Structures are given as C-alpha cells and as structure tokens.
Amino acid sequence: METAASSAHPRITINPNICHGQPTVRGLRYPVQNVLEYLASGMTEAEILADYPDLEVEDLRACKAYAA
Q1: What span, in angstroms and rounded, lies between the C-alpha atoms of 21 and 13?
Q2: 36-42-46 Cα angle (round to 5)
Q3: What are the residues facing 14 on neighbouring strands?
Q4: Which residue spans traverse the membrane (predicted)?
Q5: What secondary structure does DSSP assign to 16-31, as a single string?
C-alpha cells in the first residue's frame, strides 16, 4: 500500500514494498535520500534530470521541501 508521506508532499511516497519503506519519489525506486545526496554532491538539477529521465524538476524540488 503506497501512501503520500504527507499531504504537504504528495510527490513523496512511502510503500513498505519499495526500497524497504524509505520515502521515494512518486513510488518510483528513487529514494529521497539519494536525490538529496546527488544535490549535496554538487550535481545540478539539469544533470540529475539528464541521468534519471523518469524524474521531473518538481520531484527534485519536492525532495528538498520534504527534507526541510
């Protein structure tokens, strides 16, 4: 059963069957933690989106807002 992490962050979902229940982006197998690590390492949004075409700019912003 997939649920939104919160009503404020509908793009961030939690499903115990995906990535061991870690918060992920839209139920895809992209943990929020990984996206934040890419950003922290200096990757730009454009680089991340080029490397991971399933992601959208709104997903990256949702990860940052969720972390805040």
Answers
A1: 9
A2: 80
A3: 3
A4: none
A5: TTSGGG--EETTSS-B
